[in-house]
Amino acid sequence: MPRDRDNAGWSALESGRGKAPPHELAEAFASCFSSPAGMMVMDYLRRTFLSRRVPPTAGDAVLRHVEGQRSVVAHIQSLIEQGLIVRRS
User: Fold this and answer.
1) Buried b (16+ CB within 10 A) or exposed e, 67-80
2) pLDDT, tens digit, for every residue of 58-67?
């Protein structure tokens, strides 16, 4: 089978980082996490992942793993904030 020299399909793996999320997505995050249950979940995520401390002796893999967890929670938090701004406008 011939290989696709254009690497078609690889664009699906790009993160789209740097692009503003659609307003609907941000509003959906704000809606989900504005309920009492959503606020409880977000509080849990903050306590569990953003407030987590690792010892100075932690290895590179642990540090990368923890940073990945933190970045996901921070991204969710950012989408919630953007959604709340969209709602107010």
Assistant:
1) eeebeebeebbebb
2) 999 999 999 9
Q: How far is CA 24 from the centre of its chain?
A: 16
**Burial class (CB within 10 angstroms; exposed 0-12, middle 13-18, buried 19+) of 84:** middle
89: which 2 tokens? Answer: 């406008």
Residues 73, 49 contacting (CB under 8 angstroms): yes
Q: Which residue has the tokens 């406008």?
A: 89
> For residues 79 and 29, what is the distance between their CA atoms, to the nearest angstrom?
6
Provide the CA 79 distance to its chain's centre, in angstroms: 8
The H or E element spanning position 82 is helix 60-88
Give the pLDDT confidence of 39-53 residue by residue, as tens digits: 999 999 999 999 989
Site of tokens 């020299």? 5
